[in-house]
Amino acid sequence: MAAAKNLMPSPGNESFKDFIRDSCYYVDKTQYLKTIFNYRGSRLLMLRPRRFGKTLMVSTIRYFFEMSYENPGDTSLQQELFKGLEIMKDEEFCREHMGQYPVVSLSLKDTDGLNFRNALDQLGETIWILSYSFRWLMDSSILQAEEKKTFSKLLDHDLLCSGTESAISTMQSSLTTLCGALYRHCGKKPLLLIDEYDVPLQKAAMSGYYGQMSKVIGPMLSRALKSNECVYKGIMTGCLRATKEGIFTGLNNYSVNSVLTPNDSLSAAFGFTPDEVRSMLSYYDLGNLYDRTRDFYDGYRIGSKEIFCPWDVTSYVSDLLMPCDNGPESFSPPAYWNNTSNSQIITQYMPHLSEQDAVMLQALLDGQSVDVRVHEDMSYGDFDLSDAGQFWNLLVYTGYLTLEKIDTDGVYWFRIPNAEIRKCFDSNIMAYYHKKGGAYFENYSKAIAEALLEGNAGELATALKNALLTFVSARDVACKEPKENYYHGLLNGIILSAGNLVRDHSSNTDSGDGYADITLCSAKLDVAVVIELKYAASRAELKDKAHEALRQIIDKDYAEAVRDDCVKKIYGFGIAFFLRKCAVEVAELPL
User: Fold this and answer.
1) Are the C-beta atoms of residues 461 and 584 closer than 8 Å to each other?
2) Which residues lie below 8 Å from residue 83, measured CB to CB, with a gap of 6+?
3) How many CA atoms lie within 13 A of 41 on its CB side?
4) Residue 100: which of 71, 70, 134, 65 has the closest Cα?
5) Where are the alpha helices (DSSP H) in 370-520?
6) CA-to-CA separations, 115 to 128, 209, 401, 416, in angstroms, rounded
7) What contacts 58, CB < 8 A, 6 or more positions away?
8) What's the pLDDT at 1?
9) Cα atoms in the 13 Å half-sphere on the side-chain side of 395
10) Calpha distance 198→181 (Å, rounded)
11) Distance (Å, rounded) from C-alpha 399 to C-alpha 414?
12) What is the DSSP letter of 24?
């Protein structure tokens, strides 16, 4: 009889102990416990996008290092949970550190109220639950009466959830109080683990109570992490580094590991490597689906490592293992990330973006990379919706984009990581342009769309020249090779804003004997347009390049994709560009 396969973990299960005791499939990341523990500095902030396994890693850290308070020195729990895992091969590290520290582990990921009072109550509840697990400190023979009196406030549920100034004051000092009490009782400085530290600040920024929330979270974390001699090591996870909330100001011995950290010491600590995904799929006899899984959920680059989003992979494999009449091969990979990653804070920027930003967004959808000047320092309270740099920062740190390369000039180039994120990108961000009906290119889109649908080369050339005068100088290096990529993105962005004039707009369409650059139809679907773009080496070559583009449409039958019973006319446009100049040729194509 074949041995039973391990259960796939529920994607919502983030407890290391439950993973092991429930015999779930576990991708072993325990070798990184030593790296995290010894990471330079006594305070470490690890930044990754949401759903990248940060909470599970925090849970793993806790269960490995946390001592038995009833029987100090007893590591039987660790021996049970970590048996056979990578960290146990390092006998010296385990002997010195496993089960040897008090641990305070706080998760702030559920502090997400729609208003300040609701969020404050959630935070109070979270702190009460954490403190209640240490209620035995009230029986300590080492703590003084005054220390117990201070600690007892953390056990007062009514106080913590009262919304009063006293509640806020108690919460602000809660971690300092708890760590100090544990240090006094156990004689060892505790590890302080704070998971998703920035969620309350992000939610507050989106819901309009940031100023109030930062006055609670900022002091609570800064007091516990700065000059607190009662903490041996502080480890935090989050998405962004919030710099002006007072948490990190003046903090010594402080290190950051993010998606842009160049060294590989923790690159694969979060997320799955290709080998780890292959092993998981093979374990469940799904190895033939690796390529599909890679196309949809791979593509992140952290350091030099290729990384899959773990939430997506475990969700997909779990669904593949469900009974299916047509077999797992018939189940198309869904966009799990879209259902879990909060894009609200990103879409707040959309009404304020420039035409240049719109062109860059379209270039990304077309499979290109764009240069973005990002930085780790941001403040949720200082979001300037007119600052496009903050918008692009958010795309990088929330997982919409990943690093493609750093060129010789030190410029960072980013791309959309995979097919799943491209779908999310389209539905969450680019859909905004459709809804706005031309808000960004309204001075150009109508004239250009009408000229295309009327087959009017002269009017199209005039309208395009007007657009080129506005846009080309604004972004003359965004897509250096090949140069027509920039013009392709520009024209796509304009067409996206043509509103009800255009339907079925598509880019890089598989058609005939190749790929048409752009195809579109009229609102009534009775006129179709096929566009091929070229870049000329000089102004003198414009006319020849436009003719070459039109011949390519005809010779490779790019009209094949738009032929339909409803279509009464098909126009082919060959368009050539050189800097701010263009040439246009048009022909009516056979139905």
Assistant:
1) yes
2) none
3) 16
4) 65
5) 388-397, 419-425, 431-436, 445-454, 457-471, 484-496
6) 20, 7, 30, 34
7) 105, 107, 193, 195, 235, 237
8) 31
9) 31
10) 26
11) 11
12) B
> 211, exposed or middle or buried, with CB in 10 Å at 0-12, 13-18, 19+?
exposed
Burial (Cβ within 10 Å: 0-12, 13-18, ≥19) of residue 542: buried
Please give the helix or strand (H or E) that residue 508 lies within, else none: strand 502-511
Return the DSSP state at 352: G
Other C-beta atoms lying within 10 Å of the C-beta of residue 186? 17
Q: Consecutive 10-residue runs of the chain (591 residues): their mean pLDDT?
A: 65 85 93 96 91 94 97 96 97 98 95 92 97 97 96 97 96 97 97 94 85 91 87 92 64 82 93 96 95 92 94 92 81 76 64 71 81 74 68 87 87 90 72 51 80 93 83 46 70 78 82 87 91 91 94 92 89 91 93 86
| Residues 559, 564, 570, 575, CA torsion sign | negative
In 246-371, at which residue ranges do the beta strands (DSSP E only) sit? 254-257, 300-302, 305-307, 370-371
**568: amino acid identity, one letter:** K
* Residue among 500, 510, 520 nearest 557 (CA): 510
Which one-letter DSSP state was computed for residue 193? E
Contact 106, 194 (CB under 8 A): yes
**What are φ and ψ of residue 301, in 5° steps?**
-120, 120
Here the tokens at position 115 are 């208003």
Please give the single-letter amino acid code of residue 478: A
Among the listed residues 184, 131, 185, the one whose alpha carbon sits nearest the alpha carbon of residue 156: 131
* Rounded Cα gap, residues 301 and 262, in angstroms: 10
The CA distances from residue 542 to 320, 536, 580, 581, 582, in Å, are: 53, 6, 11, 8, 7
- Provide Rg for the chain, Cα atoms: 28
Rounded distance between C-alpha atoms, residue 360 and residue 492, angstroms: 10
Contacts for 309 with CB less than 8 Å, ≥ 6 apart: 49, 51, 52, 271, 297, 300, 337, 399, 420
**Which residue in this structure is represented by tokens 């779990």?**
318
How far is 207 from 201, CA to CA, in rounded Å? Answer: 10
* φ and ψ at residue 528, rounded to 5 degrees: -120, 150
Q: Which residues touch 305 (CB under 8 Å, ≥6 apart)?
A: 264, 267, 268, 273
Query: Is 32:60 a contact under the CB 8 Å cutoff?
Result: no
Owner of token pair 């439950």: 18
91: Cβ–Cβ under 8 A, 6 or more apart, which residues?
none
> How far apart, in whole angstroms, are the C-alpha atoms of residue 34 and residue 36?
5
Sign of the Cα torsion 121, 124, 130, 136 reads negative
| Gap between the Cα atoms of 470 and 68, Å rounded | 68
Say how many C-beta atoms besides its own lie within 10 A of residue 194's C-beta: 24
Helix H or strand E segment including 119: helix 116-132
The C-alpha atoms of residue 220 and residue 154 are separated, in whole angstroms, by: 13
Q: Which residues have C-beta within 8 Å of that of residue 39, sequence separation ≥ 6?
A: 255, 257, 265, 266
Cis before residue 482, ω within 30 degrees of 0?
Answer: yes
> Two tokens at 208?
């309009």
